[in-house]
Amino acid sequence: HHLPQQDRALRDSLPLFLQGLSVASSASQLQSSCLKQQLRSVITRYLDHFLPAAPSTGVVANHPVLVGACEAAPTTQGASLRRTILEVLCERFLQFKSRAPPPRLSSVLMFLLELLRRNGDTDVSLLTLPLPSLLRCLMLVNEPQVRKTSTDALQLVVERCAAAAGGPCMQMISALRLFVEENEGVYDRQVYGVLETVAILDPTVVEALIPSLSLSLRNAEHKRGLGKNITLRSAYVKLLGLLGEGGQAEITSLEGD
C-alpha cells in the first residue's frame, strides 16, 4: 500500500498534531470553541482521507487518527480526544439515509472497534456514544462483515458498561429505550432481534425494558385492530425467553391476554 510522500509526512505528524490541538482546545476557554471546531474538522478530513474503501485491518490499525487517539492507560486528555473522534464518527460517518447505509461502513466500524479495543476507557458516557449507531447497523444491515464488526463493538460497549456500573447500567438502558421508541411500529421484529443480541451479553439492561416493550406490543395490536399479532408475539416471546425470571413471568402474563 504505497502512500505518496506528502501523505507519509501527514501520517507521521498527524497523531501528535491531533493530541496537541485536543489539549489546546480543552485548556483555553477563550479560544476553546474555535479550536474545538478546528479539531473536529481536522478529524473529519483525515479520518476520511486515510480510511480505506474496503476494510483492511493493516490500514485501519495504522490510521493516523487512531494512532493519535490510543494510549496504554486512559488519561483525561486522551479520553477527551476519543470523545471528539466518536462524535465525529457518529455524526459524519455512521448516518443512515433512511435505510441506506453510509459509504465504507465496514471500514468505519473496523476503525470504531479498534478505537474502543485499544483503549481501556471505563467512562460510561463515552462508551455509550456509538451505541445508537451500532444498534442501527445491526437492525438494518445484513452484510456479514458489518454484522460481525458491529456485534464485536457492541459486546465491548455492553461488557465495559456493565463492569463500570457494577449492575444494570442506566445510560445503557436509556439508549436502548430510545432505540425502541424510535423504531416501534416500523421495525418491531428487527428491534427484538437486536435486543436478543444485547440480552445474550447483558440480560439485566433488556429486562428493564419489559414493561415498555409489552405496552408497545399491546398498543401496536390495538392500533391494528385485528386482535393478537401472532408473528410479533412469537418474536417477543423468543426475546423474553432470554430474560430469566422476569421474562418468564411476562410470557405467562402475555398468555393470559
TrEMBL record:
GO cellular component: nuclear replication fork
Listed InterPro entries: MMS22-like (IPR042320), MMS22L_C (IPR029424)
Domain MMS22-like C-terminal positions: 8-243
Domain of life: Eukaryota
Gene Ontology terms describing biological process: double-strand break repair via homologous recombination; replication fork processing
PANTHER family: PROTEIN MMS22-LIKE
Protein name, UniProt field: MMS22-like, DNA repair protein
Lineage: Eukaryota, Metazoa, Chordata, Craniata, Vertebrata
